[in-house]
Amino acid sequence: MSNNNIISIYFKLVRTSNYKNYNVNFNWTTEEFIRIMREKVIRDFNLENVEFIDTENNYHITRIASEDAPAIQPSTIKLIDKYGDKMHQIAFYIRPIPRELELETNTITTITNNLCSVCLTNEINIVFQPCSHLCVCNSCSSNPIMQTCPLCRSEITDRILVFV
């Protein structure tokens, strides 16, 4: 691994003033990047689990805060191919995510109650893809601001109406 493939990148913990620079190899795949950086960030920020959001997204156009944008997904695409010439300008948000057990418990409670996790009034009847979470009603799902799943923050690619 040559040192000229390594650059220092700024990482900021969302909704705090905590940040740290890390050396990143731009020849890593996004999968390697997530795995390696997650371990370092969890250790350095004393967190249980995290996901990363790049600051190069255009979610401000849709009025979604960059910090609430979908997380980077693992893939075999190299960072240099994903970000190209912008690689030296990129920065990442660190978003803590709850332990899986807490997430599953909350999901089960919401499903058991059959109430929308957004309005807490209507019954749930929409499944988001690709995460397959059943957590909101049709009314809340059709809000144009609803671009990410409220449970896992994955970008929503499709909505399926179900009858519970």
Describe this structure in words.
The longest helix is centred in the N-terminal third of the chain and has 16 residues, at 30-45. The chain has two domains: 3-96, Ubiquitin-like (UB roll) (Roll), CATH 3.10.20; 100-161, Herpes Virus-1, CATH 3.30.40.10. Strand 1 (6-13) and strand 2 form a beta hairpin. It has four helices and seven strands. By secondary structure, the chain is α+β, with helices and mostly antiparallel strands. The strands form two sheets. Strands 2-1-4-3 form a four-stranded mixed sheet, covered by helices on one side. Strands 6-5-7 form a three-stranded antiparallel sheet.
Question: Short summary of the structure?
Answer:
The chain contains four helices and seven strands.
Mean pLDDT: 84
**Secondary structure category:** alpha+beta
Strands across the major sheet, in which order?
2-1-4-3
Q: How are helices and strands ordered from N to C?
A: EEHEHEHEEHE
Poorly predicted ranges (pLDDT <50, ≥5 residues)?
Answer: none
Q: Provide the CATH architecture of the largest domain.
A: Roll
What would you report as the Rg, rounded to the nearest angstrom? Answer: 18 Å
